[in-house]
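Sample entry (167 residues):
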Amino acid sequence: MTDHMARSCAHTTTSSSAGTNRSTREPTRDTTAGGQVFLCGDAPDSIRTLPRFDRAACEVLAADVSPAVAARFEADFLALLPSRLGRIEHAVTVGLDHEETITALVSLQASAVMIGAVRLAFTAQTALGAVSKAMHPSSLLPLHLRREAEQFVEAYASVKVNPCDAA
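Predicted structure, serialized as tokens:
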């Protein structure tokens, strides 16, 4: 997780059923809806300050491994993104065990950080924190992840040259 992302994840706002807000280190929850997790795009302003795509992450990846390996990782990430999202959607909607949900979220979050999909990684990390605390993720989780993935792909595609090529 990027330093900027870690700072943004540190403080979100939760609302109680009484409607008061407080600063916390936990993901935002709607306590009036059975404690299900509501994700970044709905409540905390912190995600709105994050970039959809951070080219610096690709540059670091290319410098760490090689431009060719980074470009291959980039292609694999984009190709696997729909199936990763589908796996999470299936785990949430069918109610698979926590391990499957956690594994799918960790896979998405880790690779999103490496490629620079900051908002997508933040959303996955927020959900992962909640699921790790034995909370059931909101049925809106797949929608949030798909929206962030689509916005990442748009931002990523707007870069004229291969973003993971070393500068």
